[in-house]
Amino acid sequence: MVEKQDLPVHRARAFLEPGPILLVTSCHDGERNVMTMGWHMVLEFTPSLVGCMISVGNHSFELIRQSAECVLNLPTLDMLDAVVAIGNCSGRDKDKFAGFNLDVQAADHIRAPLLTACHANFERRLPDDRMVKDYNLFIFEIVKAHVAPQPKHPRTLHYTGDGVFVVAGKTVSRRSDFRLGLLGNGR
Amino acid sequence: MVEKQDLPVHRARAFLEPGPILLVTSCHDGERNVMTMGWHMVLEFTPSLVGCMISVGNHSFELIRQSAECVLNLPTLDMLDAVVAIGNCSGRDKDKFAGFNLDVQAADHIRAPLLTACHANFERRLPDDRMVKDYNLFIFEIVKAHVAPQPKHPRTLHYTGDGVFVVAGKTVSRRSDFRLGLLGNGR
């Protein structure tokens, strides 16, 4: 396993805006869990804000709400088995970390663990839960980003429903056609 | 151009959850515009809700806010030139529909036009603008979905920043490993 590097948090958009399935780890009061999540969006570069829909029916919901923190972990194609298995059982019934042999590391700023096998891990705190009541919509701030140095464009998984994932394919650069002010991953 | 078909609106997630770049068309008071958008998320199946971040600096912002409606259009790899060009100029300076030869069709329920060349078009109304002030976050409801019958998994564009797009690649089905309650595109 290659050691991950710190990424300035405003650059997390490079990995989140493409819309991958994520694994969300949480920890509260001695209990921890991991869930899959596909409903999320970037909201701001600085502070580095991300909106996430976490259904109240998920076991992770209260762990995240009560602890007001979680980690977004970015899995890739080689982790598809784990992604599907994690999404198809509940932390109510099972310790998914042990059950699916998930190696973890301690986060720097929060209690929820980092999933070692993932390409990137984003530690997040919850500054705004006003929209949780109406939409199960949490607004998190990324406070630390850990990213594997290679590959630059990981083979992420994008969920379409019905058990079908689209895998991130080739990349196309149109950098030379962009206005300077629109380049970069922050502002 | 193949004729599009109606899709039940709760199934829009199949095209939006994977996280593609979208083209947003709007119309207000005789003026219309089109912009690119990468910051969006599915929020609910029924009603079919989508959250979108539209920066107040965009010319489309007021057209969308005032009209309280817009269309999400889903472009594919063959439209990359138009996507980049649309994202790199402002409707303040230019009629992008004429400038980029964008064919349009009338929507069924709203005034903003559908972009004919796109794989799908989602007509949307704005039921909730409470989060616009703090986050430029609009919560829209899809009221009509028009989708090309083929291909089932279009080659959508996913933006990473820095002028680089990831193109949707191969699909992988793990349908047989899913719990029945998690299949389908609605609930």
Automatic annotation (TrEMBL), chains A, B:
Its cofactor is FMN. Coiled coil: none annotated. Keywords: Flavoprotein. It holds the Pfam family Flavin_Reduct. One of its GO terms (molecular function) is FMN binding. SMART domains: Flavin_Reduct (SM00903). It comes from the Bacteria. InterPro entries: Flavin_Rdtase-like_dom, Flavoredoxin, Split_barrel_FMN-bd. Residues 14-166 form the Flavin reductase like domain. Belongs to the flavoredoxin family. This is Flavin reductase. It comes from Novosphingobium guangzhouense.
